[in-house]
Amino acid sequence: MLLSRSGRGANWSWFVCVLSIFLAVLISVAQVFAESKSHKKEQKRAKATAGASPGEQSLTNIPLPIGQQAKGVVLPDFDGEGHLRGRFEAATAQRIDEEHVGFQNLKITTYTPENRPDLRIDMHTSVLDLKTRILSSQERTTIQRADFNIAGDALQFDTNTRTGRLIGNVKMVITDQSHLAGRANE
Question: How many Å from the N-terminal Cα to the C-terminal Cα in the chain?
């Protein structure tokens, strides 16, 4: 009787050993699978600006047929790493042709790399060139940031570089001069 009990104990030890090896292999495979999955997500984010997926709305993929108008349009603008760098909200958007989309009452919010709101741009009418990603307006446009407001009769805004050019009757009001005074003393 002692032999059979010690034999069962040996079998049980063997079973526990095989089970622990099996679990270790299973955990390793799960980690490799998870890393592979996260790598695929990073690759998808990197492709988001080059060309968004057919179902995803962005500045490069606006789902409007030529001549069609949409109301209450909200479009995100992502950088190469998938970080939100801007948000476009328009009362109406209309596809003019394959390369141009017109907007009415467009409000753009740009974001810092830390995902904080940076600029607020308000345009009555504007046109986005989908190839160059330059947004143009021939009407009075206002740009606001925490420390200044600036307005001009026309605007060209490059959504890639986040730089713009105001033209005609430009007026700027600096609302927070505290950081300017500190630099003058240096």
Answer: 93
**Please, which pLDDT band fits residue 168 given cuts at 50, 70 and 90?**
very high
Distance, CA of 124 to CA of 104 (rounded, Å):
6
Backbone phi, then psi, for 31, in 5-degree steps?
-65, -40
> What are 38's two structure tokens?
């996260």
Residue 144, CB-side half-sphere exposure with 13 Å CA sphere? 9
Measured CA to CA, the distance from residue 21 to residue 24 in angstroms comes to: 5
Question: What tens digit of pLDDT does each residue of 109-154 get?
Answer: 999 888 899 889 999 999 999 999 999 999 999 999 989 999 999 9
CA distances from 134 to 33, 46, 115, 118, 126 (A): 41, 21, 22, 19, 10
pLDDT tens per residue across span 44-61? 443 333 344 434 456 667
As given in the structure block, the two tokens for residue 72 are 């209450």
Residues 6 or more apart from 164 whose CB is under 8 A from it? 121, 143, 155, 156, 157, 158
For residue 15, list its beta bridge partners. Answer: none
Measured distance CA(41)–CA(32) in Å, rounded: 14
